[in-house]
Amino acid sequence: MEGLILRRAALFLPGQLRRLYDWVLSWADHPRAGTALALLAFAEASFFPIPPDVLLIALALARREGAFRWAGLATAGSVAGGALGYFIGWQFMAAVGGRILAFYHLTEAYETVRVLFHRYDAWAVAAAGFTPIPYKLFTIAAGAFGISLPTFLAASLLSRGARFFLVAGLVYVFGPPIRAFLERYFNLCTLIFAVLLVGGFLVLKWML
């Protein structure tokens, strides 16, 4: 997972990013850790480089009885942050949205997302919300391309909720041993799950 974080924020120097990563983890022992998790998820959905999963895992490991509460907070914060990203793309793409994407070297990917939205509409958001694909790219692009806001929010809630509750559930069931597995195979697991999820809905749509 840490490798994913580094790739997501290539413009940061490794030392700077490591300090930012450690700062995020330091909130795990804070009395307001839940608030910090929700705010981190909110910020990551539109501009912040560190994904909330790192703090979610730390909190769920420290207080396993609250694992699903942490997942709920992360989901709520992320969907709200996605709405902010949508608003940035809708109203401030040239002034703000484009700069955020350029900062993370996502300008070329933005054009690819244009094609994905044209073909799959909200399914592109659902895939991005669950997988390691930078969610902020899709939230900003959704607003810029005029994707239906209710559809966008529903897809975000479904995908972000699935992601965070899956992480919380694994930690709750398996405890500390699952941490190494998640850090090593998290990207692969989420990609496989997303393919199965979207594929299942496409088959259902075809049958109906």
H and E string: HHHHHHHHHHH
Q: What percent strand?
A: under 5%
Number of helices: 11
Report how far the terminal alpha carbons are from each other: 38 Å
Helix proportion range: over 70%
**Assembly state:** single chain
How many E-type strands?
A: 0
Low-confidence stretches: 1-13
- Backbone shape: globular
Q: Return Rg in Å.
A: 16 Å
Transmembrane segments: 68-88, 137-155, 162-179, 185-204
Pfam families: VTT_dom
Protein name: DedA family protein
Organism: Dissulfurirhabdus thermomarina
List key phrases describing it.
single chain, 208 residues, mainly alpha, 11 helices, 0% strand, globular, disordered N terminus, DedA_domain, DedA family protein, membrane, transmembrane, transmembrane helix
Q: Can you give a write-up of this model?
A:
The protein is mainly alpha-helical and 208 residues long. The protein has one domain (2-207). The chain has eleven helices and no strands. The relative contact order is 0.13.
What's the structural blueprint in terms of helices and strands?
Elements: H1 2-8, H2 14-26, H3 33-44, H4 53-62, H5 67-91, H6 93-103, H7 107-120, H8 122-130, H9 135-144, H10 149-174, H11 177-207
Helix pairs in contact: 3-5, 4-5, 4-10, 5-6, 5-9, 5-10, 7-8, 7-9, 8-9, 8-10, 8-11, 10-11
